[in-house]
Specification:
The structure is a homodimer.
Chain A: H1 3-12, H2 19-30, H3 37-44, H4 53-65, E1 70-72, E2 80-82, E3 89-93, E4 99-102, H5 105-111, E5 120-131, H6 133-138
Parallel strand pairs in A: 3-5
Antiparallel strand pairs in A: 1-2, 3-4
Chain B binds a DNA duplex through residues 16, 18-21, 36-38, 50-55, 57-58, 76-79.
DNA sequence: AACAAGGTTGTAATCATTACAAATATGGAC
DNA sequence: GTCCATATTTGTAATGATTACAACCTTGTT
């Protein structure tokens, strides 16, 4: 993926770039697998041997705060992260742990007005849990 | 709240009653505050001095598995529990941490069909995050 | 080059949750 | 009621994700 695109995305979200931030943002944009902080660290430490896990956590928190990425709490075990900030839902397979994207534009756009007006909503998350097609067939 | 009602609810969900299970289920039914495991423990240990935190965790997991209660992962810090299993959404105030109920029957009933058929959906959670009316006014 | 501000690193906590094994309670057979 | 098998509870000790913190490194500026 083009570096410029990543720079631009970070800039758009008011985030100053750094080698680590770009690497992490790039990873999220190129991998649509909803990785955990640990997975991101394990992958990137190969390319940036000095990378620290604290940096990964700090950066992911920053990205989420600035809406450059989503932090998903669908999995009680650990947070997952998503580089796609456009409205969509998620499905967690309780068997294999995979988090799937679920297109649900219409649901989310109709969901916002359901919150009484005095609540100031920053984010709407729609989470589905169950068994994915793969695990449904296996057993 | 009538003991019979709680017994019945547990029985309906295939859960054998015990002093601890009834106390925890009762607490969830009488307190609509979406308590954490720790809050439940702290309250109930006054009435059941021998209560163990492990029992609270075990019981809450059992209740959630049997659909006698909901485990909410809206808060990244810890799980919250809800004795109301009828379809509704939740709102987490990022400032004060309160979890509010949001009536959203229509959203949820329309949400299920959005998941492609091969996914077997056990639960649908709709989570809103932001500032509640109280915190909105204060600052 | 010197400096200040911000970013990164590694280690050591924190804290929610779980594993586990011993102790206790429950319900049925006799 | 007693005995036994089974399920439940308890307390302590792990686990494991996340954060606190202080030292170190980078970067841009004068």
């Amino acid at each position: 993926m083009d570096d410029v695109k990543i720079y631009q995305h970070l800039a758009d979200c008011g985030i100053k770039p750094s080698v680590q931030r770009i690497a992490i943002m790039r990873y999220l944009m190129e991998h649509r697998t909803h990785p955990s902080a640990d997975e991101i660290y394990s992958e990137l430490v190969n390319k940036i041997p000095t990378l620290s896990k604290t940096t990964v956590y700090n950066t992911l928190k920053l990205l989420a705060e600035q809406n450059a990425a989503l932090m998903l709490t669908i999995d009680e075990r650990n947070a997952h992260f998503d580089g796609d900030t456009t409205p969509h839902a998620h499905f967690l397979c309780k068997q294999c742990g995979t988090v799937y994207d679920i297109p649900a534009h219409e649901v989310l756009t109709c969901a916002k007005p359901c919150v009484p007006g005095e609540f100031h909503t920053d984010s709407v998350d729609l989470y589905f849990r169950g068994r994915c097609p793969k695990c449904n067939c296996e057993n």
